Amino acid sequence: MKKIGTTIAAVAMLSFSFNCLAQTKYWIFLKDKNKDDAPAVSSQTLQNRHLQGLTITDETDLPVKKEYVQQLRSLDCQPINTSRWFNAVSARLTPTQLQAVRELSFVRTVQPISGQFYIAKSQPQRRSAIAPVMTQVQADEFKKAGLTGKGITIGVIDAGFLEAPSNSLLKHIFDRKAILDKRDYVNPPLTYSDKFFTTAETFSDFHGTEVMSAISGANRSENAQNGMATESQFYLARTDHGTREFRGEEDNWVAAMEWMDSLGVRLINTSLGYAQGFTDPNENYQIAQMDGKTSIISQAAQIAADKKGILVIVSAGNEGDDPSWRIISTPADAQGVLAVGATNQRYWNRIGYSSIGPEFLPYLKPNVSCFSLYGTSLSAPVITGFAACLMQANPTLTNKQIINVIEKSAHLYPYGNNFIGYGVPLASRALALLQSPAESGSVYAHEVKATGTAHTLKLPGTGDMVSIFHKKNSMHVLTQEVVRLRDGQLTLQRQEGETHTTVDLKNEVIEVIWE
């Protein structure tokens, strides 16, 4: 009897496996909504939009029709996530179910969302490694001004928050109960209580914990600051499974964005990026698709920026050394998000792994950069803490105004490039811009005209090393290099095809325009 039972169980399990293998994950886009339904957002969300001068509600706030979801379930199709922004439902379907769903009168179209992707991963940070970036962005200037992100709610969408409550850098966050809520979209039920922080499944489960440390970490016993938003509060969402890296998790990301929007969150950090590596090469994203409008998550990020007033801060990606890719991942390609690259510590130019902005984009990516030894996954949360301090200083600023301040405060502004954007945001300049919005970071910038194939600049200092960006136009870099000043002089050698050269002195920037 035991042997027969074992055989039956094995057959059942094999049948279940075949059914799972036969299923593919899809977006099911629906035709309409019930205009009489109430918006599925909180009063805090509506108040935020009113203060920012946005449309208070529109059709993207209305929920997906319940009767449509019920009809899908009648086909034994179990919805995974619903999206009010896209009026869509995600579900795994067999070929038979797929055909039946496509024939439903209320279904507009069906789109597959399966496959693998590369995630913007990082290695665990060391406390000593985060200190240089705090100095680089002038974090002490915010601290002196009493800016700690107090009263600001931050959403973090990531791969896992393992052992966050016991992390010494986050103890102060949990002591004051600053985690307002959490959701696990990888392992429903969506609220996981203690298992959310204690269940180890993949190598990426610490990723969100490290990200939080870079946003708000502090060691009270050592009076050390590991992040700038030490008094912010948080909503956390786990959307990515680090081992099963498949594109189908994009719907988890969209669901987390919509959840946070419904709660009135205005600042979201996401250190995840999707690019290539699909099981089926036909499903790979192509470089040309990093255009800010092809991927669903870029579309969602743009909706968040334009319609919901949310400041989305995204890691640019870690594919800068990959000769087959090199460029930013999605959703960093969305025009409305603040994409953050990474610089090296000493020279403030692009560190090798940091992804660059594609030349076909009509706008600049990444937007800014800062030092990170372990990936853009940890440079983005540094700037998230920076943004939280600005929001505390002036809560009336819109998401786009905050991006503007951060960009103008960066050390290369206005001579940005597709390697590091406008460079490293500086707290002292950002605070000055808040005091005098009409001021521009260009007071630290100078233009020089040059002719021929060489030009000599007289600069202060002797024996100093200077970063140089050789560019084919005002935005796109041919090469970057570091050269030494000799007797206070710098001789630039014009490269073939070079029209602009940016000389980075950290405290000021010189743009040489070749005629």
TrEMBL record:
<dbReference type="GO" id="GO:0006508">
    <property type="term" value="P:proteolysis"/>
</dbReference>
<feature type="active site" description="Charge relay system">
    <location>
        <position position="207"/>
    </location>
</feature>
<dbReference type="InterPro" id="IPR017317">
    <property type="entry name" value="Pept_S8_subtilisin_bacteroid-2"/>
</dbReference>
<dbReference type="InterPro" id="IPR036852">
    <property type="entry name" value="Peptidase_S8/S53_dom_sf"/>
</dbReference>
<dbReference type="InterPro" id="IPR015500">
    <property type="entry name" value="Peptidase_S8_subtilisin-rel"/>
</dbReference>
<keyword id="KW-0378">Hydrolase</keyword>
<dbReference type="InterPro" id="IPR050131">
    <property type="entry name" value="Peptidase_S8_subtilisin-like"/>
</dbReference>
<feature type="signal peptide">
    <location>
        <begin position="1"/>
        <end position="22"/>
    </location>
</feature>
<feature type="active site" description="Charge relay system">
    <location>
        <position position="158"/>
    </location>
</feature>
<dbReference type="InterPro" id="IPR000209">
    <property type="entry name" value="Peptidase_S8/S53_dom"/>
</dbReference>
<dbReference type="Pfam" id="PF00082">
    <property type="entry name" value="Peptidase_S8"/>
</dbReference>
<dbReference type="GO" id="GO:0004252">
    <property type="term" value="F:serine-type endopeptidase activity"/>
</dbReference>
<feature type="active site" description="Charge relay system">
    <location>
        <position position="377"/>
    </location>
</feature>
<protein>
    <submittedName>
        <fullName>Peptidase S8 and S53 subtilisin kexin sedolisin</fullName>
    </submittedName>
</protein>
<dbReference type="InterPro" id="IPR023828">
    <property type="entry name" value="Peptidase_S8_Ser-AS"/>
</dbReference>
<keyword id="KW-0645">Protease</keyword>
<comment type="similarity">
    <text>Belongs to the peptidase S8 family.</text>
</comment>
<feature type="domain" description="Peptidase S8/S53">
    <location>
        <begin position="149"/>
        <end position="423"/>
    </location>
</feature>
<keyword id="KW-0720">Serine protease</keyword>
<keyword id="KW-0732">Signal</keyword>
